[in-house]
Write a structure and sequence with these properties.
alpha/beta, UDP-N-acetylmuramoyl-L-alanine:D-glutamate ligase, 9-stranded mixed β-sheet, 4-stranded mixed β-sheet, 23% strand
Length: 309
């Protein structure tokens, strides 16, 4: 390809999200609304960046079933290069199931992403090393096995390509711990930041302490998201807090992925860190206001419209 691409490595899944319309009672059914759509942290980041006009290649795996084919078809329509996504008939397409309370807060979730660990192996990644050679940046989620993550970082270092990471969940985040010194950007939430930094995050002050700890461990830009409190960020030279943009919250799913993509977009376009963080915050706000995991209205103009100076 003529234009150097972004290489996104991570999960592509079918999301099923149910939001209760009244307080949830365990052991019985609660009325509400259920949506099914495309998701997966890696895929969501890829779609956000493609909608912002970036050239994006997705390295992922899905089942050779109706769900997998639909995911690839929709991703291709969004402008994502899916030619390196594995389709395998022996595995089911990844899935994510979430239950939200009547305010839109996550009550519980279950994910089925094992295909990524079993098929996106070190050998599979190495055979596609030219994707690293030709990439402007690598962005990954933590659904890969530790051995596959190590291969990603070795190839990125070999070809001098910066790496950004979304820790994905508190359970998966520790897989990134050995590689913190090789990260340009990391975007954990409170639980993920605790798992990586050892700092208990309960508020803005402790969030900033965790971000600074991650920088001390070698990360160049650390952003810790704090829900309604907004986010805090740190580099070796600066740190700060960005409040959450006021907006109607329809669905929280995908907001963190949008934030990661918005910041990556800003960094790719040589924006200062504080401005890149603002773009990420705006992308998250747009996603919060829609029922999809990625806002179909996303554009650079809409991002700047979201930012209140």
């Amino acid at each position: 390809m003529n234009e150097r691409h972004l290489l996104i490595i991570g999960a592509a899944s079918v999301d099923t999200v149910g939001r209760a319309s009244q307080p949830i009672q365990t052991g019985t059914s609660t009325p509400g609304a259920i949506r099914v759509g495309a998701g997966g942290v890696g895929r969501n980041i890829a779609e956000n960046l493609a909608r912002l006009g970036e050239s994006v290649v997705l390295l992922s795996a899905v089942g050779a079933d109706r769900s997998g084919r639909r995911l690839l078809s929709e991703a291709g329509e969004c402008g994502i290069d899916v030619s390196h996504v594995v389709m395998d008939s022996a595995h089911r397409t990844p899935a994510y199931l979430a239950v939200l309370d009547e305010s839109g807060n996550l009550v519980l979730s279950v994910d089925d992403m094992i295909i990524n660990q079993e098929l996106i192996t070190p050998e599979h990644i190495y055979r596609r090393r030219r994707l690293f050679r030709d990439a402007r940046m690598v962005v990954l989620d933590a659904n890969l096995s530790p051995a596959s993550l190590a291969t990603v970082f070795r190839l990125a270092e070999k070809y001098g390509v910066p790496v950004c990471a979304d820790p994905t969940t508190g359970i998966l985040a520790p897989r990134l711990a050995p590689h913190l010194a090789h990260l340009l950007l990391i975007t954990p939430n409170a639980a993920e930041a605790e798992a990586l930094s050892g700092v208990q995050v309960v508020d803005r002050e402790t969030g900033l302490r965790a971000a600074k700890r991650l920088v001390a461990l070698g990360v160049r830009i650390a952003i810790v998201t704090l829900g309604a409190t907004g986010l805090v960020y740190a580099t070796s030279r600066e740190s700060g807090h960005v409040p959450a943009l006021e907006c109607e919250i329809v669905d929280l799913t995908g907001a963190g992925d949008a934030l990661s993509a918005g910041v990556v977009f800003g960094l790719l376009n040589d924006l200062p860190v504080d401005e890149a963080v603002l773009l990420g915050t705006a992308a998250a706000a747009l996603t919060l206001q829609c029922r999809e995991s990625v806002s179909p209205q996303l554009s650079l103009e809409r991002l700047y419209d979201q930012i209140v100076v």
